[in-house]
Design brief:
With 129 residues, the chain is an all-alpha fold. 79% of the residues lie in helices and 0% in strands. The radius of gyration is 15 Å and the shape is elongated.
Length: 129
């Protein structure tokens, strides 16, 4: 049985746009090889899918949950990239540098989610999908 949201066109539009925009930061900072880039894109795809399923289909809660779960995906990416040795950096500088960049990451992704919320609310002229 296929879940109903997988046949929703708006789900796939949101999923593709959110995955590309939210994972672009992390890919630019720590994505040095194709395995790391695929891992980053996959974790952000899964975090956005979870946000879609958990949210009550209001654009504001969907954007907030995407931002919140995106932070978790960022932390998970750092741990997995270090664990699987996908980076050319040593463990200590990778983790400390990522912790120092986390507020910047959260701010940039917050602006992306806020912009998406405003644009979506204006396009659909309502607050629900």
């Amino acid at each position: 049985m296929i879940p109903k949201f997988l046949s929703n066109k708006r789900f796939w539009i949101f999923e593709c746009v959110a995955t590309v925009l939210l994972s672009l930061n992390t890919i630019l900072w720590i994505g040095r090889n194709i395995e790391a880039i695929i891992l980053i894109a996959l974790t952000f795809f899964i975090s956005n899918m979870i946000a879609w399923v958990v949210s009550d289909k209001r654009i504001g809660s969907l954007c907030f949950l995407s931002w919140l779960f995106g932070g978790g995906a960022y932390a998970l990416d750092i741990v997995l990239i270090d664990w699987f040795k996908m980076s050319t950096h040593e463990s200590y500088p990778l983790i400390i540098g990522s912790m120092l960049l986390a507020p910047l990451f959260a701010a940039i992704n917050g602006v992306i989610c806020l912009s998406f919320w405003i644009i979506s609310a204006k396009i659909y002229k309502r607050v629900e999908f």
